[in-house]
Design brief:
Chain lengths: 334, 537
């Protein structure tokens, strides 16, 4: 009889399921990978076999241009892995296709969340609380200063800025997978029916979302239009394009950014953001701590982010916890 | 308060100088007295509420939030006011009263004592939203750090009412917040404040670094730049006929009490610009001349001065310029004229407390460079180049004065610890502690920290350094990370002194990263011994 949970171990570049000889979200190519969602820091290419939801596999195919070794798993579906391990994919509410993975072995249940949020999101299935013994959670916004406001408030801010400056445009920096589509879908929900203009890097992912049943309304490419066309319009671009030469073609853009980091003024200043929109696809502090309380695991392991504070919270609430200190999880644009 | 909070938020999120000026001048035009005056005072750092310190705020938060979570949050956010505004628990009853105006708030803050602050501040904070709390804490603790300098605020004032910013500077120091007289003059055309009979600070004329510029010595005079502190000595006979003398530092702080020996030695009314130095016996230079900065440092920041200090390290002023002399304003005159007046003045000044900063004669620029390279006196920081025909203009106007510092000393050090920066650099590991070897690194020598630097690299380099710190972390001590010894910095510094505060026994002055030696193996970094040879105490 081995020590409890010794069949799960971690390296800085990923979490290993030892008896099944497979890795979850490994940062390097392995024979068999279980992938929670399509963001590049979780879904690397080049694995022998990639087990993920069909949406995540489609996103990876778009990114890496291959379906080689793709093994689709539906939400709620359980698959058998070697070594007596079973894996079940459960919605994580992060982006399209994102999943938590429940691993069961020798009577022990381990849930690894990948990235997740608890707010409603019109572009993906909502997070489901899954009881387990070990809860392996992210902690991207694991500090009590992070409290994401209701998204309606942020949409109202964005639309008000647009209305105040009808001769200009609002350029919104948003991560190309997930955030961009959510912002567009929420704008539509807020009644904004005007065409929304996209940076070229956004186009394919938006199309993929639409193919998966997410209606984004009329989208146009910036490159097909003149400055005049874009006055009074919303433009969505990856954060890296905000202060790039690319933005010179826009009519006096007001620089906005949709990110949980925008809660902190200095973060907005560092990026030259004039209109910070606090919109995140991650759980904020209250959601992280509430989720741990709801899942109520025997142990909480923290993969990446502000793990010190979440560890401290666990300590204050007499919960056993430890940090895995995974590296290479880029979170600057979340 | 809401209006002021909205102004601060707008300023924080505005990068462009012109748009900041537009925001500020609109606020100053549209806001009534005395609120706008308090806002100016807050932005120029002129407000001080002794009962409210950063620690007051921290203590309030630690009673409401777990101290560890507070510290982690503060470290991440990089700004106490902002962290507190975000972590302050929202009051249970969500019926926000009308928040008090700026004037009322300033009144309340002024009335606080150390005893009442901990119970009164929470009441104020409870009535505000997160932006309001941020503004209140910034206002109460000072040090806005929102990308608006005092000069920018004054420029906005000048722009708002279409007056000359130099006049604003001139009158500024004669007035107290909330500057109603200044607004009356600028906005309503009242008489300007009386500046003639008070010992006021006049803003300094400052220099740009010379960098690649080559100047013609026909047009420019050269003089030594001394390694002391720039001071302004002001004597004015007040309306009652009594002489009032003040000594001001570069930032306009009144430091008269720290250097009492200079207060009764100026025998006529004048405003003089010079370098404050102390006399040294063992510190090299010419006999009875200036001691090193280290010696001067012993006297700075003291509220009372012992007799021993006055005899062992007496202060004197090495004069650079005359701004006002016996009621005559010389600032409009050329440097040459002012210099002639200053030289003529010297015989009326006691040489116990004054001397003249001598000019450096050179055939041409190249010759001047040789003289600069050969300067031996440790109290020399470099050269100043002053346009012969330039008036004395407050601030740093391009093309008139240049500073040409001595070449810095260089040493190769190894990165040992990194700490997160504040403000604009919060979240980045931007403060670096580095060390030198205490012997032969190939024979098991250890690194001892010799200094700390947080400048001298580009934003792109900062990102790279931040990444390296995160990837090579060995240990975490709160906000500090110990890193693997992998990186060599070429560190530039002005001088090095013995110090009891550091394990290495050495302390550098103005250390900054000169170059990042990504290519250099750490065992090739310098040893403590070679650094110690550069000590001149």
């Amino acid at each position: 009889m081995s020590a409890p949970f010794s069949w799960i171990r971690s390296e800085p570049w990923g979490v290993q399921v030892v008896p099944a000889d497979c890795w979850i979200d490994p940062g390097r190519a392995v024979d068999r990978a279980l992938v929670t969602h399509g963001h590049a820091d979780h879904a690397r290419g080049g694995h022998g076999e990639t087990i993920a939801t069909p949406e995540t596999l489609a996103i990876m195919e778009l990114r890496y241009n291959t379906r080689k070794g793709a093994v689709p798993v539906q939400y709620g579906e359980t698959i058998r892995l070697p070594g007596g391990v079973e894996a079940t994919y459960i919605p994580a509410g992060h982006v399209l296709g994102s999943a938590q993975i429940l691993l069961e072995h020798a009577g022990e249940r381990v849930v690894i969340t990948g990235d997740y949020k608890r707010r409603a999101d019109p572009t993906c299935a909502p997070f489901e609380v899954t009881p387990c013994d070990v809860f392996i959670t992210e902690a991207t916004f694991g500090l009590p200063v992070f409290a994401h406001p209701p998204i309606e408030e942020e949409m109202a801010k964005l639309l008000a800025a647009l209305a105040r400056h009808p001769e200009q445009c609002v350029l919104v920096g948003a991560y190309a997978l997930g955030k961009a589509q959510r912002v567009i879908a929420e704008l539509r929900a807020a009644g904004h029916d005007d065409p929304i203009y996209l940076h070229g890097a956004m186009e394919k992912m938006c199309r993929l979302y639409e193919e998966n049943g997410v209606n984004l309304g009329e989208l146009r490419l910036v490159s097909d239009h003149t400055k005049e066309d874009m006055r009074g319009r919303i433009i969505i671009a990856p954060p890296s394009a905000l202060n790039d030469r690319w933005s010179r073609r826009l009519p006096e853009p007001i620089t906005a950014m949709a990110s949980g980091w925008m809660r902190v003024r200095q973060r907005a200043r560092q990026r030259g953001v004039e209109l910070p929109l606090v919109i995140s696809d991650h759980a904020d502090w209250d959601e992280l701590t509430q989720t741990i309380a709801q899942v109520n695991p025997a142990e909480t392991w923290i993969t990446h982010g502000r793990e010190e504070a979440l560890l401290r919270w666990c300590e204050l609430h007499q919960r056993r916890a430890r940090a895995l200190a995974l590296v290479g999880r880029e979170d600057e644009d979340d | 308060m809401n209006r002021f909070a909205a102004l601060l938020d707008a300023l924080v999120y505005t990068g462009s100088r012109n748009r900041k000026l537009a925001l500020l001048s609109a606020y100053l035009r549209e806001t009534p007295d005395p609120d706008r005056g308090w806002a100016m005072a807050a932005l120029t750092g002129e407000l001080d509420f002794p009962a409210v310190k950063s620690s007051t705020i921290r203590n309030l938060l630690m009673e409401r939030v777990d101290p560890v979570l507070w510290t982690l949050s503060r470290d991440f956010v990089g700004d106490t006011a902002e962290t507190a505004s975000l972590l302050w628990p929202e009051p249970q009853e969500s019926a926000p009263q009308d928040s008090p105006g700026l004037d009322e708030t300033v009144g309340l803050l002024t009335s606080l004592t150390r005893a009442t602050a901990p119970s009164e501040l929470p009441k104020l904070l409870d009535g505000l939203d997160s932006s309001g709390r941020y503004a209140l804490i910034k206002l109460a603790t000072g040090g806005m750090r929102i990308g608006v300098s005092a000069r920018l605020a004054k420029t906005a004032f000048a722009q708002a009412f279409q007056v000359d910013v130099e006049d604003v500077e001139e009158y500024w120091h004669a007035l107290e917040p909330p500057y109603t007289e200044l607004f009356a003059w600028a906005a309503d055309g009242s008489d300007p404040p009386d500046v003639a009979h008070r010992p006021l600070f006049r803003p300094f004329m400052l220099a740009h670094p010379l960098e690649e510029t080559v100047v013609d010595l026909e047009d420019f005079a050269a003089e030594w730049k001394w390694d002391g502190i720039r001071v302004q000595l002001v004597r004015v006979t007040d309306a009652e006929g009594n002489p009032q003398t003040r000594l001001y530092s570069r930032s306009g702080d009144d430091i008269s009490a720290t250097f009492p020996e200079l207060l009764d030695v100026l025998p006529f009314d004048a405003v003089l610009d010079g370098e404050l130095l102390v006399r040294g016996i063992t510190q090299g230079g010419e006999a009875g001349g200036a001691a090193s900065f280290n010696a001067l440092q012993q006297r700075l920041g003291r509220k009372t001065v012992s007799k021993k200090m006055l005899t062992e390290a007496p202060a004197f002023v090495r004069l650079y310029d005359t701004l006002l002399l016996e009621g005559e304003d010389l600032r409009e005159h050329s440097w040459e004229t002012r210099r002639a007046r200053l030289e003529a003045l010297m015989e009326r000044l006691p040489d116990s407390h004054f001397d003249l900063s001598s000019l450096v004669e050179a055939r041409d620029f190249e010759h001047l460079a040789q003289i600069r390279a050969g300067a031996r006196d440790d109290a020399i920081e470099g050269l100043m180049l002053k346009r012969r025909d330039s008036p004395y203009i407050a601030g740093r106007k391009v093309g008139l004065w240049y500073k040409w510092k001595r070449d810095p000393l260089l040493v190769d050090c190894v990165l040992m610890y990194a700490q997160r920066g504040s403000g604009k650099r919060s979240s980045f590991y931007s403060d670096y502690t580095f060390g030198c070897w205490d012997g032969d690194p190939d024979a098991g020598a250890e690194l001892l920290p010799v200094g700390k630097a947080y400048s001298g690299f580009t934003d792109a380099e900062l990102k790279k350094l931040d990444k390296l710190v995160r990837q090579t972390t060995l240990n975490r001590f709160g906000p500090v990370r110990e890193v693997e010894r992998t990186l060599v910095f070429e560190v530039a510094f002005d001088s090095v002194h013995t110090s009891k505060r550091h394990k290495s026994g050495l302390a550098m002055r103005f250390p900054r990263i000169h170059r990042i030696r990504w290519d250099k193996p750490v065992h090739e970094a310098d040893r403590i011994e070679s650094l110690r040879q550069l000590v001149r105490d």
